[in-house]
From TrEMBL:
<keyword id="KW-0677">Repeat</keyword>
<feature type="active site" description="For Fru-6P isomerization activity">
    <location>
        <position position="360"/>
    </location>
</feature>
<protein>
    <recommendedName>
        <fullName>Glutamine--fructose-6-phosphate aminotransferase [isomerizing]</fullName>
        <ecNumber>2.6.1.16</ecNumber>
    </recommendedName>
</protein>
<keyword id="KW-0808">Transferase</keyword>
<comment type="subunit">
    <text>Homodimer.</text>
</comment>
<feature type="domain" description="SIS">
    <location>
        <begin position="213"/>
        <end position="355"/>
    </location>
</feature>
<keyword id="KW-0315">Glutamine amidotransferase</keyword>
<keyword id="KW-0963">Cytoplasm</keyword>
<comment type="function">
    <text>Catalyzes the first step in hexosamine metabolism, converting fructose-6P into glucosamine-6P using glutamine as a nitrogen source.</text>
</comment>
<dbReference type="GO" id="GO:0008483">
    <property type="term" value="F:transaminase activity"/>
</dbReference>
<feature type="domain" description="SIS">
    <location>
        <begin position="41"/>
        <end position="180"/>
    </location>
</feature>
<keyword id="KW-0032">Aminotransferase</keyword>
C-alpha cells in the first residue's frame, strides 16, 4: 500500500531513514559501538587477497561505491563488474578471492550466473540481498540481508541505500580484521554510520526545492551528472534514475574525465548536476565545475553549507545538504538524487512506478 503517497517510489524514498536504520541496527552493536555482523563469516578477511563485486544496474553502483570503501579502509583491491560482462569474461578467480554479488530481488539472471561462476572457480561467495528466500540467497555461501522491506517501484531507491549500509559495515569489519583500522578508527566510523539515518531524514527537507527544480529539468533534452570519489558512482546512479523514469537522456561522469571528452557536450541548455560533499576531493571537483561554468553550463550543485560557501562558482541552484564528517556521504546524497529523478518524472507525467520497457526483476538474460 502506498500510504499517503502518490507513488510507491515516493513512499520508498521517504522510508529510507527508517529502513537504513533497521539495516544499521542489524550490523552494528550500538552498545559497544562495534560492527557486529549477524552471521559468522566462513573466511578471515586477513586471508582474502582480492574482492570481485558483481551486480546489475543500481546494485552495481552500490558495489562501485563499496570499492572505494574496501580499498581505503581495508586496503583490499576490489574489482567491480556488471554481471553480464563478468559471467562471460572468464575472469580467473582463486581460493583467496571473495566474490560479492549484490541484488535486491536475488533473482537477476546475470547476477545469479556470476555467483555460480565464482563458486565453481573456488572463490568464497557472499551475497547482499533484500529477499532472503531468493535463489541468490540460497546459493551463496554467506548471505548479508538488507532490511529494506519489499521494494515495489521499478526504480531502486531504498534497496540501494540499504545495500550501501551493509557494504559500509562490511568494509569496516574488513579493515578491522586486517589490522588496517584501530579500535579508535572503528569507533569513529561507527559513529559516522550511526548518524546516517538522521542525516537522510534531514536530506528529505530538500524536497520542495527539488520539486521546483524538476520543472526546469523536465524541459531538458540531456542532463549530465558529475562526481568524484564515492560521488562518481552516485553520479552514474543519478543519471540511471533519471533516464529510467523520466526518459530524459542523462549521463554520469567522473568529474576529472570531463576534459577528456564529455566537456564538448556542455552548453546553456544542458543542466549539470554536480554531487560534491565537502570531502577530500572537493577542491578538485570545484575546479571541474569552473570548467563547466566557463562554458555556460547550468550547474546544479549538491553540497553542504561549507562546500556552498567555498565553491567559487555561479550555480543555477545549490542544494544545501546536512554537514557530515564521515566517508558515508553516498547514502545521504542519494536522497536528493532520487528526488530529482522522481519529481522530474512526475512533471513529465510518466508511469513512475512502472516505467516503459522495464521489469522490476530481470530474470532472463
Ligand atoms: O534485483 P536486482 O538488484 O538484482 O536488480 C538489478 C537491476 O536490475 C536494478 O537495480 C535496476 O537497475 C533498477 N531498475 C534501477 O533502478
Amino acid at each position: 500500500d502506498k500510504a499517503n503517497y502518490r507513488h510507491f517510489m515516493a513512499k520508498e524514498i521517504h522510508e529510507q531513514p527508517e529502513v537504513v536504520g533497521h539495516t544499521l541496527a542489524r550490523y552494528i552493536d550500538m552498545a559497544s559501538e562495534r560492527v557486529s555482523l549477524p552471521v559468522k563469516l566462513p573466511f578471515d578477511f586477513k586471508d582474502i587477497q582480492r574482492i570481485t563485486i558483481t551486480a546489475c544496474g543500481t546494485a552495481s553502483y552500490a558495489g562501485y561505491v563499496a570499492k572505494y570503501w574496501f580499498e581505503r579502509m581495508a586496503r583490499l583491491p576490489v574489482e567491480v563488474d556488471v554481471a553480464s560482462e563478468f559471467r562471460y569474461r572468464e575472469s580467473p578467480l582463486r581460493k583467496g578471492d571473495l566474490a560479492i554479488v549484490i541484488s535486491q530481488s536475488g533473482e537477476t539472471a546475470d547476477t545469479l550466473a556470476a555467483l555460480r561462476y565464482a563458486k565453481a572457480e573456488g572463490a568464497h561467495t557472499l551475497a547482499v540481498v533484500n529477499v532472503p528466500t531468493s535463489t541468490i540467497a540460497r546459493e551463496s555461501e554467506t548471505v548479508l540481508q538488507t532490511l529494506a522491506g519489499p521494494e515495489i517501484g521499478v526504480a531502486s531507491t531504498k534497496a540501494f541505500t540499504c545495500q550501501l549500509m551493509v557494504l559500509a559495515s562490511l568494509a569496516v569489519a574488513a579493515g578491522k580484521a586486517r589490522g588496517e583500522l584501530s579500535e579508535e578508527d572503528e569507533t569513529k566510523l561507527v559513529h559516522g554510520l550511526v548518524e546516517v539515518p538522521r542525516l537522510m531524514a534531514d536530506a528529505l527537507a530538500t524536497e520542495l526545492q527539488i520539486e521546483k527544480l524538476a520543472h526546469r529539468i523536465a524541459k531538458s533534452r540531456d542532463v549530465l551528472y558529475l562526481g568524484r570519489g564515492t560521488s562518481f558512482p552516485l553520479a552514474l546512479e543519478g543519471a540511471l534514475k533519471l533516464r529510467e523514469i523520466s526518459y530524459i537522456h542523462a549521463e554520469g561522469y567522473a568529474a576529472g574525465e570531463l576534459k577528456h571528452g564529455p566537456i564538448a557536450l556542455i552548453d546553456e541548455t544542458t543542466p549539470v548536476v554536480v554531487i560534491a560533499p565537502n570531502d577530500r576531493v572537493f577542491e578538485k571537483t570545484v575546479s571541474n565545475m569552473q570548467e563547466v561554468a566557463a562554458r555556460g553550463g547550468n550547474i546544479i550543485l549538491m553540497t553542504d553549507a561549507k562546500g556552498a560557501a567555498e565553491a567559487t562558482v555561479d550555480s543555477l541552484v545549490t542544494i544545501v545538504m546536512p554537514d557530515m564528517a564521515s566517508a558515508f556521504t553516498p547514502m545521504v546524497y542519494a536522497v536528493p538524487v532520487q528526488l530529482l529523478a522522481y519529481h522530474t518524472a512526475v512533471v513529465m507525467g510518466t508511469d513512475v512506478d512502472q516505467p516503459r520497457n522495464l521489469a522490476k526483476s530481470v530474470t532472463v538474460e
